[in-house]
Design a protein that fits this description.
single chain, about 260 residues
Length: about 260
Amino acid sequence: MEIIQSVLLGLIQGVAEWLPISSEGQAMLFMMEFLRLSPADALSFAIFLHIGTMLAVVLKFRLEFLEILGWRSRSDPVLLKIILLSTLATGMTGVPLFFLLKSFNQGDIIMLLIGLMLILTGALLRAPDSTSAGYKRIEDMKTREMVFLGLAQGLSILPGVSRSGTTIAFLLLEGLNQRDALEVSFLLSVPAVLGAVALSLFTSSAQPVVSLENAIVMVSVSFVVGYAMIDLLLRLAERLDFSKFCIILGLVTIGFTVGPLVI
């Protein structure tokens, strides 16, 4: 893998992570189409890329994390409960799906899956009314809602399913306002990424196909770009209809996958 390709992957992750268009799906499409990586290797790299943007979230929301842990002032028991319960529930759906994906080694099937999941994400994003002011506070969330939030987040291990899009859509449907939904979604991303990266590393028996230098470049670029673009892309996300983008991109992906088979 060339350095320029590592930079491009870091850019894709840094920009797409904050938008409900599945950064994992975009990175896998790039790696499978242009780098000719196998679906298993592409999945591992797509998960690895999240380290940079996860660090960006930790830095950006460092005060919130310190409050949750009780290191800055008093701890926030509600947010801590949401993170703990939702993360445990994420593993219930995410871990089995991870092993299922790793067992597939057919690029056409994975490409078709990405296309279908992008369309599903687009449909999901159209369900809630994101312009609604909301009526429920974070403190009002029930244990059952926290668990289902985590189960929904676990589905984002599927390439094409946006983690941020899924969690934000779920929280908006539950009545939270957009600001609270975005904050909870960001905070939930950190333990989810840590778990996914650890699972990917511990279950991989193959030697890495990229150098340490390339790995550092990918993480560094995704961190810098991700941190710099958080505020800008959040403002942009409030103005654009990403549901249409997901559906169109999904249809194009399916077209490129099925087209050659038909011809």
